[in-house]
Design brief:
Helix content is 65%, strand content 7%. It is mainly alpha-helical.
Length: 146
C-alpha cells in the first residue's frame, strides 16, 4: 500500500487508508458499518495514532471494535432513557437541564437522539446524559426504598 510520491519537490512515503479499507475489515468480522460509523472509526484511528505502529489491519479492527462498543453503550443508554421518559414524562429532561447540562438540551434534540440521530447531541452531552441517567435511577431507587 505504501508508495513514493513527490510533494513540494520532496519525496515522501505515503500509506493511504480509506473508506473501502475500513468497510473491508468490518465485513471480514461480520459487521456492516454506515458511512457515519466508518467516519467514527477513522476518527478513532487518528485520535489514537501511534507512529511506532502506524495504521494496519489490526489497528483498524481494534478501532471498529471500540466504536461498535461505544454504539452498543449508546443504544443501551437510549433504551433506558426512553423507558424513564415513558414512566416520568419530561421530568428527567428538566432535571438534566436544571442540574447537569452544560448547555441546555431541548426536547427536540433529545427526541432526535433517541430516534438514532447520534449527531443531535454533542459527545459531552452524551456523557452527561449517562451520568444523569445513573443519578436518576439512584434517586428513584432511594424514593422507592427510602
Amino acid at each position: 500500500m505504501a508508495h513514493l510520491i513527490k510533494e513540494n519537490n520532496n519525496w515522501v512515503i505515503r500509506d493511504d487508508w480509506g473508506v473501502s479499507d475500513i468497510k473491508s475489515v468490518a465485513i471480514d468480522i461480520n459487521i456492516t458499518l454506515t458511512d457515519n460509523q466508518v467516519y467514527r472509526v477513522m476518527e478513532n484511528i487518528v485520535g489514537n495514532y501511534d507512529s511506532s505502529h502506524g495504521v494496519n489491519w489490526d489497528i483498524i479492527t481494534c478501532a471498529i471494535d471500540e466504536v461498535m462498543g461505544e454504539i452498543a453503550e449508546m443504544d443501551s443508554l437510549k433504551a433506558n432513557i426512553m423507558y424513564v421518559l415513558t414512566k416520568n414524562d419530561l421530568r428527567f429532561l428538566k432535571a438534566f437541564n436544571d442540574n447537569i447540562a452544560v448547555k441546555e438540551l431541548t426536547e427536540a434534540q433529545l427526541n432526535a437522539y433517541l430516534n438514532d440521530d447520534n449527531d443531535a447531541v454533542p459527545s459531552e452531552t452524551y456523557t452527561a446524559l449517562a451520568d444523569a441517567y445513573g443519578l436518576w435511577c439512584d434517586a428513584l431507587e432511594g424514593a422507592t426504598h427510602g
